[in-house]
Amino acid sequence: MIDVISWLFVFVALYWAFCFFWGIRASRRIESANDYFLAGRNLSPWVFALAATGISFAGWAFTGFPGLVFKDGFQFANTAFFAIAVALSGVLLLKRQWMLGKRFGYTTSGEMLTDYFKGDTLRNISVGIALLFGIPFVAILFGASGFLISEITDGTVSRNVAMWTLSSFVLLYSVIGGMQAIAKVSVIQFLLFVIGVVVLGIYALDLIGGFDSLNMGLANMAQNVTSHLGITGGKGGGDFSGYFVIPGVVQFTSGLGIETPKGGPWTSIMILTFMMSFMGIQASPSFTMFGFSSGSTKGFAIHQIWGAAACVGILLLVFSTIQGIGANLLGANASVNEAGFAVKQVLPELSKYQHTELVAHYIKLIGSNMPWLVGFLSLCAIAALQVTAAAFMSTTGSILTKDVYIKYLHQDADDKQQIKIARLCTGLVFLAGMLLASFSMQATVLIGGLAISCAFQLWPSLLGVTWFSWITRQGATAGLIVGLIAVVMTEALGQKITGGLLPWGVSPWTIHSAVWGMFFNIVICVLVSKMSSHDSDLDRRESFHIFLHEYTASKSKDRWSKPIAGLMVVVWMFFAIGPGSILGNIAFGKPDEGYEAWIFGMPSIWAWQIIWWALGVGMIWFIASKAKMSTEPEKDIEKIAMDDM
């Protein structure tokens, strides 16, 4: 253990030196508030692409995804398609928001919403959503880093000591160098995330004895071992172990916590709505702000096609899935051990409630032979958690500065004062998050889990700004408020607030809370917008869309591309993450018919997922490049003041 701690210290020290270097270097380039908040709107395409991919995925994907695959099997592995869903979200929103930011000089999403809709309510709500990301959501990530180090060192370094120490350096380089430092450090953090996931996946596969050995072991499980998910009972095409199939299209249950779906919670509709919730990441105020920092739109396509869809997709569907599924054959599953199907019993037995410990146990397993690799992989995990946390923490501090301090307290603040307040606000956000993680992790998870679903509720407002001028301020505001209420009422927090009086649990009818919120959000938004459609601001809103159309209008020979792109999205969503995904349960061999019956030598649902992942990458490429949703505008955009329109 001493060797492991020593190597961990060496790698973390080198990592801190790198972060501090970029913090100092970036600080020397800060000449204005714009430099601090948005890196001078000049991030290079590759820096933006790699940083944006890390920020969007790494924090949860490295440690959370494998453990949940171990717990819920291939039905949960289907959620790896959130790599495609997030890319699709960016394709629809990112370029157009960036064009408006370039045109009118917006720094935050709140400024854009206020300028477009002419009202402060949407700005204030967006600040609240930013705080959900900046405090409890970031606290979850920082808390996870502390937990990881505590587990790897067998408690020699306590969770809180590790959490405060590691996170303090994130605060340091963030407040010193602003967005420039965060983006540059995010590049190396993303690369460490990729390396770590690949190494752990290969290591797990090597322990099992190769791909054939893995799948033969899975075939034995499918025929002889029942997981905590039970049997599907005809849902999803047969009476199969829920671990190897998607349990039907939808189950009209009362919700988790009250009624458990048969064969597992991840029905097609649950997966589809869960994927839609992740589209809230790039609709969040923090990511909108990060998008404004890009020097051009060239990095958007790189991020969406090759970073998110291609790279993260294969990392999750192959390497992370091998970690999670393979753990069953390496001693982590008590039922498999009792049945005698474990290849090796090198991992400790983990209950379904201990799935978050899986990655830490893989890393610890290496320790006896290669303590240096334990230190390096620990650093990879820390970097993956911190790349997401740093961006959301820092942008939240900047949002508080621009949308609260400057808007309501000191509108004439000069650049020096703005930077000073932003650093102070970032420090306060950090302190609030760390105290929450230190003293009430249960509340942290309860509140932080709302962040992505609440950010998803901004979609109608952002679609109004970027696509649909008929959405009015009144409609967008009313829809957003009702949608947020619906999200809370279909999450665990709703039961807490009402004292358990609600007749439903979490995500009733296996529909994620984010989509329950969006259903009511859209209904109210449309109704109220129609009732207020003759408002005096319609011409103003139209002027924004005239500008967007002028700079994005397709040539006559390219006009076919967008309808085809729309059709591709519908087909892909239906078969990859929608009702058609249950066809994958048996398309290439039934789970319980044995290894020889599996056409590709692997569970049918896994093969189906990989095929539709590849098609999803092609779909994102077509939309981003051929349909020109993420290409450079047709001509240069000149910055103008709003009063000049």
Task: Give a verbal description of the structure.
This protein is mostly helical and 645 residues long. It has one domain: Sodium/glucose cotransporter. 67% of the residues lie in helices and 0% in strands. The protein contains 26 helices and no strands. The protein has helices spanning 2-27, 33-38, 45-61, 64-72, 74-77, 82-104, 109-117, 121-152, 159-208, 211-224, 268-278, 285-292, 298-326, 334-339, 358-365, 371-409, 415-439, 441-448, 451-456, 459-466, 473-489, 492-497, 513-531, 538-552, 561-577, 604-626. The longest helix has 50 residues, at 159-208. It is globular. The termini are far apart.
In short:
With 645 residues, this protein is mainly α.
The amount of helix comes to: 55-70%
Strand content: under 5%
Largest sheet: none
Count of individual beta strands: 0
Ends apart, CA distance between termini: 66 Å
Q: Please give the oligomerization state of what you see.
A: single chain
Write the layout of secondary structure elements.
Layout: H1 2-27, H2 33-38, H3 45-61, H4 64-72, H5 74-77, H6 82-104, H7 109-117, H8 121-152, H9 159-208, H10 211-224, H11 268-278, H12 285-292, H13 298-326, H14 334-339, H15 358-365, H16 371-409, H17 415-439, H18 441-448, H19 451-456, H20 459-466, H21 473-489, H22 492-497, H23 513-531, H24 538-552, H25 561-577, H26 604-626
Helix pairs in contact: 1-9, 1-16, 3-9, 3-13, 3-16, 4-13, 6-13, 6-26, 7-8, 8-9, 8-15, 8-16, 8-17, 8-18, 9-13, 9-16, 9-17, 12-16, 13-26, 15-16, 16-17, 21-23, 25-26
